[in-house]
Amino acid sequence: MPTIIVPLLCDRTKADPHGVSERALPWARGLAKQLAAEVVLLTALDIPPGLLAMADQALLRQLLDDWRAECLTYLEEVARTFDGRVVSLEVDEGDPASAIVRIASQVNEPLVTMASHLRTGLSRLVLGSIAMRVVSFIECPVLIVGQRVPAPLETAAVEVSRVLVPLDGSSLAEQALDALSIAGFTGLHVILLYVTEPGARDRVGERDLRPDAYLADVAARLKERGFTVETSVREGKPPAAIVATAGEMRADLIAMTTHGRSGLRAVLMGSTVEQVLHGANTPVLLARPRGESSG
């Protein structure tokens, strides 16, 4: 049985104590029902260094105990909105990304579902991004609800039925398809997309690639696994083409692996994955390819 992990912010020192984290809740509720999943609601007390340095350690412990109790009350309120599903509550201390990775290592078939404000450029370099750090270090799929994703109506049932999967001819990119199975999705309508860049020659290793034939081959394999499949070949820059196609084909989700540029260039200019995350009006399911080292 899958386990959906939902990180939530609970920090009364901030004007908006829950930030953007609650934007993931409609998808978490819908996926919990769709996948018959258990749910873990998690918050981490990200304690400022100045507070930890308090001379009065007894007072510090009391402050942290009060904060923990307040967070637990909040999580209990959120848990009641999950329509009777099995919900566990976790209040951790320390770095939120580390807490998410730890919980994911302890549950069955984890699927992290989280919202992100998705910092860019130098802001991400200096301040970091919890979502990107989680994706970098975690083994399980991570579903990210970005800022451009419209909030569903309060009464709407969020269900994933149409998934766009961008492919580039590599087995690495195809691992996004495995992530759908790992997350427990069945009976999906999968849209396979191949984007050709103007003037670029499509090659994989030493062989030329015919996108239509390649997508037809992948589609045949997916149909054997019970998926409904359609294919599309577009021309343009991959991030823009992926975002546009997801909108045109009414995809509920974009599924991708996280390979791409690395290091400072990725931070400042953005990999394909990050550009899609920033531009998409659709949640994005990310999976780190098997065998790719973390860090």
TrEMBL record:
Domain of life: Bacteria
Start and end residues of each UspA domain: 17-145, 161-288
Name of one Pfam family that matches: Usp
Family, per entry: Belongs to the universal stress protein A family.
Name of this chain's protein: Universal stress protein
Organism: Thermalbibacter longus
Taxonomic placement: Bacteria, Pseudomonadati, Thermomicrobiota, Thermomicrobia, Thermomicrobiales
